[in-house]
Amino acid sequence: AFNFCAGPATLPEAVLKQARDEMLDWRGTGMSVMEMSHRSDEFVAIADAAEKDLRELAGISDDYAVLFMQGGASSQFSTIPLNLLGDKSSADYVNTGIWSKKAIAEAKRYGNVNVVASSEDGGFTSIPDQSTWNTRADAAYLHYTPNETIGGLEYDFIPDSGRVPLVADMSSTMLSRPVDINKFGLIYAGAQKNIGPSGLVVVIIRKDLLGKARKETPTMMNYQVIADNGSMYNTPATYSWYLSGLVFKWLKEQGGVKAMGEINARKARKLYDFIDTNDFYANPIDPRFRSWMNIPFTLADDTLNGEFLKGAEARRLLNLQGHRSVGGMRASIYNAMPEEGVDALIDYMAEFAKERG
Ligand code: PLP
Fold first, then answer.
1. Which residue in 14, 72, 215, 242 is deepest, having the highest Cβ count within 10 Å?
2. Does the keyword field hold Transferase (predicted)?
3. 324 pLDDT band (50/70/90 cuts)?
4. One of 26, 99, 241, 292 is an active-site residue; which one?
């Protein structure tokens, strides 16, 4: 089966098999990783190895702390303003889709939000040119969403935020290709796409941004506290952390993010090329800003949606239904989706269009 779910998403089969093999007895300890103390030597080694591998994969220097937090990416929508607004009254946000909007709505609870640019009028099908952004030199930070998972809209550039810390919700693009981490003040990513199981959220924060949390910030949301305690202020999501570590090892075996980026570019190009050359299917996104990870598409006759999905499922092409707010279809093709999965989808789409188009 090929699972095109946007998240929780398909994980590498090799990772799942290793987890299965180690489930009851992790390397002769007589315990599952799930049953280990997070303070034990064994688990601390697992946790350290995961962080080390992530640092190596993403090119994260010692200037940054890597935090394994909980509450998913959504909890960061409030954690970020609580920690980074400091004595500044406002932060800048770019609005390019549903996830941007959620981040903006939450930040408004804690301070003034300046929406510097929005592509909402155009139905979130493009990214506003940065020369038109109304950014402010005294903003606490500039927040953007490099890949809008629902809309399938992705930046092909890293915004220039000057001296203002750049904050990015990389939930659905993290580790999909090389990125210069040094351009960012903070990156966060919900794990359930390219990292591991849901609930875990990885935060990469430049160390000079630690220690600025507001007094009333919940302890569990204070980056400084989490960093000082090696993400073990409380009991961390140990099993998710372990599984993420297995995914990082797998990714290194595939050649790391550079090799993965090439495969991802090829997978996305194939699917978009097919959609663009077949009259039966359409993708509304400005071609320059089409997502590599999430590819929404519509059928020329949407009364056939149900039939399309049923036929897909019969071929074990799973979870192709688009987000409820957008409709149509969406194929999420993260790192763990093999190229054969994309080929199988295209074969099915071609056949369906021929028979029913
Ligand atoms: N941001 C983006 C870009 C996402 O795709 C998602 C989830 O799909 C989230 C935030 C929310 O993540 P979570 O469900 O882990 O809170």
1. 242
2. yes
3. confident
4. 99
